[in-house]
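Reply to dn_fold:

You asked what the input looked like. This is it:
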Amino acid sequence: MSAPARWQIYAYGQPKVGEPAAARWSMIGVLALGSIACMTTATTVNVALPSISGAFGLGQEEAQWLSTAFLASSTGFMLLSGWAVIAVGMRVAFGAAMLVFIAGGLCGAGAQDPAMLITGRVMQGAGAGLIQPMAVLVIFTRFPEGARGLALGVYSLCVIVSPAFGPAVGGVLIDAFDWRIVFVATAPLALAAIPLAVSILPPRAPGAGRAKADWIGVALVIGAIALAIQGLAHGRREGWDDAGTTARLWLALGLAVAFVGWEVRHPAPALDPRLFRRPGFFLAGLTIFASGAAIYASTFLAPLFVQAVQHYSPTAAGEALVPAGIAMAVCFPLAGRLSDHADARLLLCAGLALFGASMLMLAEVAAQTEFVAVATALALGRAGIGLTMPPANALAMRQAAGLLAQAAPAATFLSQTGGALGVALASVLLEERAAFHADALAPLLNEANAQLLDTIGTLAAALEAGGVHPGMAEAAAARQIGASMRATAQLLAFRDCFFTLGAGFLALAPVAILLPGRPRAAQIG
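and this is what came back:
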């Protein structure tokens, strides 16, 4: 028996001849249920950070570790998914991951100190990371070639949309109960998924060989990601020449280099270097990484923009994002289906270009831009992402013949790592550009500026006419102009962020043409 065939049987259970489509889709349904439980929690806790900080007296940096711990842990443990499935079978691996996730939630909910809180988030992230690549493995081992894209689109939609509902769910629960509830809010979904997994997911095949886990590699990559995120956040607050900032970033780089060196030499690496020696997988992986960064960075920037610059209420901000959510919900399955029958490279190129164009549209908006224009630009961006992710994953898997068990966790890892770093870098760029524009506008607020003095005089007269005391009108006018300058600096910073995303993705779009087309004979690794 060939090595790829052994991987398929040992990892996923040997598919039955004539296996009904309902059985395959049931597996995807169970895995999607687990992913929804885990990924909703990824952002649900974020809205509880002020309450948690008050309860434990946490500073901003300590509080941020609650988010960083989940992201770093889930990203690192994705690389152990293939090992877990090989070692104990998908059925047991999934159930164990759900139990770890639930235990982490209970640990967080019952925490009496910050260390216990962070431990709970690490456990939740570990459970989430272990299960996410499993659906890709099922899709590429049990679905026929002509149905894989649709399955990828449907599953990806569940994974991508779930975190968007996290803050809303968390806010409602905190108002109704207490901050501790957010740690166990999705535990019922995880519990429901366990008995379903026992009856639906494939067991470990008899006679499967032993599997090795690359624990050192996983520890190195978790450390590198956590320190990189913390270093960027610390630099944003304390400055880039601060000793704490430079120490974190250099240590993150050192761990990343050590991880690469370790993986090259390890006999069973968590992230197999052989994948990246294949140009097709490398280019598809680059697109997956960039798409993950785009999804999370734009999801971070868009709600901030409509509330901070356009002064939308939280409800109105949510309404502005509704068309975007609908566009993504339609395009994910559609793109998956089209990638089964059309050249996925064309879909990928179109999706990247559409997202880039939507970001350039947002780079032109102002505080007075109509609601419809903003909502349309956001919807086009989500449609572009919806057209990008399923074909990018399909193209990556098609280049992984013989290494599928390694490729599925690698692709998920790239998407999640891109997302984690995308949010961190978007936050840094936003603050840096806001400071830059504020410094550029500051000379205008000078008493020697005759135009400024005229403007203050005109505004002060208007304020006096409106009932402001004459002795206070001039100071009030100066404050209003200062606030207007700060708002302008913030608007320009958001425009810079959107322009950077747009230009980057328009430049990336032609890369899709360089990817290999559909292989002559589909192979399963």
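Residues 172 and 459 are 42 Å apart (CA to CA).
Hope that clears it up.
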